[in-house]
Amino acid sequence: MKSLKWTWAAAAAVALTVSGCGNNNNNEPAASSSSSADASQTASATQSTSASASAALPDPAKIRIFTENNTAWPPKPDWGVWKWVKEETNIDVEQVLATGPESLALAVSSGDMPDVLSVFPNDVQKFGSQGAFEDLSKHMDQMPNVKAFLDSHPDVKSRVVSPNGEIYSIINDGAGEGSQMVWFYRDDIFKKNNLEVPKTWDELYTVAKKLKEIYPDSYPFLFRHGLSTLDTFGPSFDIYPEFYQDPADPTKMKFGLEDPNAKTMVEWLNKFVKEKLIPPDWLTMDYKAWTQFMSTNKAFVTVQFIGQIEIMNSQLTDGHLQFMAPPIGAGDKPYLPKGGQEGYGLAVASTSKNMDAALRYLDYIFSEKGKDIQSWGKEGETYTVVDGKRKFNDNYKEANDLRVISGIQTAATYGWFDFNAWLSLVKPEEQYAYVEAPKYRFPVAYSRPNLTSDEAAALSTSNDQLWKFWTGEVTKFINGDRPMSEWDAFIKDLGKHDLEKVRTTYQTALDRQLANTK
Fold it and tell me: Region labeled Disordered — which residues (predicted)?
């Protein structure tokens, strides 16, 4: 998995995909404490708690927060999210807006950093060790809600604890459902031709062959992320392509291509390419071409970000897309990659003159109360309770209006998000995918343990040459430019490209991470 640096634009693109869903049998969002029948009690309790706490608020304070400047939801100082922060914490917030990819670096070098900063993991690794960000692990006594959050979210905790035990940021959680890759298909075409939804890759091949016969100029199976799509296909074969924690023994790092199931996966893709069931330009397929294939009866089964189901359904004039369970390639369980994680979080400037207020802000947005208010707003102001369920006011016509009108789910306005708030504004018939997808997540995420700066520097060249080698050779196998009979030789040759050096370094990092997060 080659590391890519995120930008605010990239984050916005992922966030925007959280606008599409499917349909469940009850035409209701997934149940949770915030959308269940006792929502009125929860809301009333929140209001009561807020009222009783107002007299005991700390002294007023003001902090500056470095955050995104997104034209899709232009930042406003009078957003509801900032008003609720003031009401609950007595903190006034001034937004400092990013103007480009170098904005964070300029803020750090200026000597006058904002108190709280929206950051990505690469930023944390770079600036945290330089002393720009406060080590939050030293302040857990001041942030009991943050501590409780991390203790109850071990996946998040493992991502934020540095090799030496410091915590330079807290990664957001709850709003990352749009990052989930899923399978979906043209259910209208399947019904029209009396075709069964494939449950295995063998059945996927059979139904693709049948669709090719019916629609000769089609490529029934389509994807648009090139070789990176192996990250999505892999779990169907009980693997990820590169390094990850072995689900069978999470104390060990595994290189997925060494598993025999990886060869099976590549053999299937080679077969699909050879029989023209996948477009010949699968490696370079872009979003525009993918959209044209899916909307003109030229492709019928695909993998994409989950939000694309609703987006495409709104564009199709004749046809309909539906979520499908991932087909099994090996083993006995259908798996999707373990998605739903967010890519950015919040750090506190080590030079902040408002440290207590900055820490208080983090503790609020990572609390149960902060999660509820920063996700839903307040009863009578943003929503009412109807028949025991929360209902956003009529001015919120679609989910993205939460961002535009009130700033809900924009960067730095929340720490722990209740996704049911977003889902409640998605059409009932488009909620199915979000309800179903979590049922199929692979036991472990496709991620690597944090390296020290020395380890990262030592592996820079090795990681790059290993990645270039395996991606080049696997592409040849899929396209038929190298025979599958040479697969074992390919696996052996991985050793010539520092496989063991990389494996040993990540194993050391994993051992350290497990020790640090006990």
Answer: 19-55
